[in-house]
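Can anyone check this?
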Amino acid sequence: MKAMRGYWGYLAAAALIVAWSRGAESAIILVLSLAVAVYTSFALPVWCGAVNRDGRTYCRKNAAGLLMGCSYRQHRWQKMKMIVLRHKTGSVVQAVFPTAKEKFAGVISVGGLLSAIAAVIVPVFTG
């Protein structure tokens, strides 16, 4: 059961897909969408992926979420800094998405954010 505690966001993503397919209320879809986005950004167990001091390799310690680093103080906000700084955006993709697991989590995160936006906008236009 402890192993599933770190992967609750995948259940939320599955529930989100079911909620969209069954036409659930927009409030439920919004809550599930935000849960999926927050999970993948800040709670999903992944590798750190921050650039090491040699500038060529990436940290492979465990981290929580695509946007956060590992337990090293220098790595905690390094990914978010890379997104903001223009000259480092080329290495963001390799640092944030080093494996297929992180790429899949990124797709789920973007899907959750788009779902949240759609859950707010669709009721406005449909009444």
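Reply from J.R.: I decoded it. The chain has one domain: 2-126.
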